[in-house]
Structure formats: structure tokens, C-alpha cells
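Shipment paperwork, digital attachment
Item: protein structure file
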Amino acid sequence: MPSRPRAETQGKWLTRVPATGSDAPAALAQAHPQTRAPLTAGYRSHGVPSTSGGIAQRWVLVYSAHRHAQAQRTGDKQRRTPGQRAGAAFQQRSRQTFACDAEAPPALATLTQG
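Attachment content:
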């Protein structure tokens, strides 16, 4: 099968850069939400030049007030101490009803193993 010539594109394209990439944390630290230009209600943006991977790029950082609040709730949940997680698991297990006394010890054993 003959190889086809590679298409050269002069158009611009858009992709998402993961926040965990090597250059992304520095770009995010550059622009605080208050300094970003307003887009629509609850959204702000900021353009940042980058040479990620040796290619000149222009990144647009988009801030969403709704997403920021959701991310904070998720982070708070992840930062719970093991003791708080164990207490929550105990509270949940203590609301469970058992058909007979023989069902309770295995449930307690699985709780203490975790």
C-alpha cells in the first residue's frame, strides 16, 4: 500500500492540558482568578505563552467559580484524616440492621480489617 503524503495543517486547534503536567502548575500559579479577564458570569480567562515540548504554544487558562467550589469540596473530602474516615465508616455500620446475632461479628471483623 503506498504511503499517503502527510497533511500539513495551518489551522489552530484546541486541546486540554492536564493540570498535573510538568509546565501546567507553573502556568496556573502565574494567574490568580482575580487577575483573569471576565468571560461570562462565573468564568474568567487568562492567556499564557508556553513552549511545552519545544513547541511554541498559547495556553488559555479558564477559571470557573462553580468548578472551584466543587474542587474544594472534593479536596476537603480527600484530606480527611484516617480517624475521621474510620469514624464515618463506624457510624455507617452502626446504622445497619442484622437479621440475627450471628451476622454482626463478621460485619465487625470487616470493619476492623479496613
